[in-house]
Each structure stands twice: as structure tokens, then as C-alpha cells.
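Notes from hallway chat w/ T.B., transcribed later so I don't forget. T.B. wanted the structure written out for a chain they're using in a teaching module, and asked if we could keep both sequence and C-alpha cells in one place. Agreed to drop them here.
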Amino acid sequence: MSDIFREVEEEVRRERFEQLWKQYGDYVIAAVALVIIAIAGFELWQRYEQNQSLKASETLIAAQDLAESGDFSRANPAFAVVARDAPGGYAEMARLSEAGALVRAGQHDEAIQIYKSVAADDSGPLGSVALIRAGWAGAEDMSKRDLQTLLAPLTDPTSPWRHAAGEILAFADYRAGDTVAAMKEFRALSDDKDATDTTRRRAAAIAAFLKEGGMRNFGTVPPPAPAAPPPGTAPPNGTPQP
């Protein structure tokens, strides 16, 4: 008797399943197909990203080699291509490299604009590095006030970049001829225990250099004494030497 009930129950289940399949089977098939397509698409996208990254890496390295060799006319367009088209961090690396090549080529204003652009797009360490590089690129020509404005995001007492920014501002005072202020700032950096050992040693050396007079003009070197005439040559208004 139990076998009959079991058979009837299985038949009812089969009929219900067939009805559900007829009603929803197409949706199930479509959902499975979408999952398969999504997985395949993701794998293709990953492969595409890898290829793009490899291409960007090769182009970036080639551009850096050109810049190292001094061929800036070819390096800078290559950097620009990577900065425009490359994925991930390659674009930012290319922009920094392009700005560095411009600095080496003497085009400081153009380099500073790129550094500012990178800093505007990134509020993290990359943007801070860009501001420091912009500060050094403009240290020779920018006024201290402009440098202070440029480096303002880094000079907060809690900023880990405050020492690097302070070094640039101290150099700006030295360049402007304010040796007393520059020496004071470098001395403060050398005494700051929160600064790195390298920064402290460099600041101490510069402060000592400035204390001793720095690049102060100590006069001119006297001209060398005239060479003695060779034997047998008559000196001016004189008789020949034996």
C-alpha cells in the first residue's frame, strides 16, 4: 500500500515540476546564460586590462629611457600618451615622469603645472610628492610667498611632509639673500627630532655652511706672478740673460 502512495506522490511531484518548468524554464535558462556570459566577459576584461597594463608599462619604460638619454622631444609625447590612455597608476606615474623630464629640459613652468594637476587629482601621498617636486622645480624662480601658497597643504604641524616643505622654504630664504632667516630655519630642521636623520644631517650641514659665510664674496684671487723669461732672453728694458 505504501508503494502506491509513494508512486502517486512522485507522479504529483513530476507533474508539478513539469508545470513549473514550462512556466519558468525560459527564465532559468536565460539567467544561467547571463551568468556564463558575465563570467566570460569578466575574464575577457581582465585579460584586456592585463594587456593594457603591459603595453602601458612598456611605453612608460621606453619613454623614461628616452628622457634619461636627453631625448625629451620624443620622451614627452610618449609620457603624454601613457598619461592619457593608461589604466591604474601608470597614468599618474607617466605624468610625474613627464614633469621630471620637463624640469631636466629647463621647462620649469610647464613641469609645475603638471605637478599641480597631479596634486589636484590626488589628495594622498602621490599628490604630496607632486607638490614637493613642484616646490623644488620653482625654488629658483618663485617668490617665497608663492612657494608658501603652493606648499600650504604640507606645512601643517601634523603633516608628515612638513620637513620636506620647510627645507624648500628655507632654501627660498637663502636664495633671496636672507641668510639669517635661512640659517635659523635649517637649524630648526636639524634640531627637530621628528625629521628623518637624513634631513637633520643635511639641514645641520647647510646651517653650518651659512654660519661660516656661505657663498659670501671674500674678494678676488690675485693674478699669478709673471713667469721668468727663459735663459738668453732679454728682459724688457734690459740686457740678455746669460
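Follow-up for T.B.: The chain is about 70% helix and 0% strand. Might be a good example for the class.
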